[in-house]
Specification:
Elements lengths: L9 H48 L3
Keywords: Membrane, Transmembrane, Transmembrane helix
């Protein structure tokens, strides 16, 4: 530019905050899913453990 100010691409400036916001929202959503999977996995492990304890304690 004649006045010395650089021209920035409109895609870079306008999409950067929204892209970052979308990335953070997706990361938060994915993190929530990871916690749910972990909770179901731990719950399932405990069910299996209780069934095994029951089977061993009631074996003849």
């Amino acid at each position: 530019m004649p006045d010395g100010t650089p021209i920035e691409a409109p895609d870079e400036t306008s999409d950067a905050p929204s892209a970052e916001r979308r990335h953070l929202a997706a990361e938060k959503k994915n993190q929530r899913y990871v916690w749910w999977y972990l909770a179901y996995f731990l719950f399932g492990i405990h069910i299996v453990a209780f069934v095994m304890i029951y089977a061993i304690s009631h074996a003849k």
